[in-house]
Amino acid sequence: MVAADARTAITFSLSPGQAHDAPEGRALLGRLSAPNRPLHLLMDRAYEGNETRQLALDLGFIPVVPPLKTRVEPWEYDREMYKRRNEVERQFRRLKGFRRIFSRFEKLDVMFLGFISFALIADGLRMC
User: Fold this and answer.
1) Which of 18, 55, 99, 104 is the most buried (most CB within 10 A)?
2) What local confidence, expressed as pLDDT, does residue 64 receive?
3) E strands, 1-128, where?
4) CA 80 from chain center: how many Å?
5) Where are the beta strands (DSSP E) in 5-123?
6) Is 39 exposed, middle or buried (0-12, 13-18, 19+ CB in 10 A)?
């Protein structure tokens, strides 16, 4: 999921449970248009690979992701900005408040995607 803030999802997709998150994350980034000004892109450590970070830089984002502790050449990142990553995690928690999402009753992906879309809309309308 790519989110603009704690309440606004920009795009999301489903991936197989056994698949790694990074390739799907790169596909989601590829769907975005380049920002008109540099924007911070807060990412989980699952997306800290060179390929994902380079794609974010090529698109005009400033990647904010800590390097793995095993990196030979770690990079600097904005630690204060990284603390805001929990906003997206809170959005996932709110989505899991919908029983049909956390237990995945739907057998078809299209139905599950439709219900996630519905839950995101309902969550967004709660603030109005």
Assistant:
1) 55
2) 92
3) 2-3, 9-11, 39-42, 61-64
4) 18
5) 9-11, 39-42, 61-64
6) middle
Contact 47, 29 (CB under 8 A): no
Sequence-ordered list of residues with C-beta below 8 angstroms from that of 112, at least 6 positions apart, any chain = 14, 101, 104, 106
What pLDDT digit, counting tens, does each position of 75-97 carry? Answer: 899 999 999 888 888 888 888 88
* Both structure tokens of 30: 């590829």
- What phi and psi, each to the nearest 5 degrees, are found at residue 121? -65, -45
Range 8-18 burial, b when 16+ CB lie within 10 A, else e = ebeeeeeeeee
Predicted confidence (pLDDT) per residue in 7-58, tens digit: 788 888 888 878 888 888 899 888 888 888 888 999 888 888 899 999 999 9
pTM over 0.90: no
pLDDT of 128: 62
Domain range spanning residue 48? 2-126
Give the chain's domain count.
1
pLDDT at 15: 82
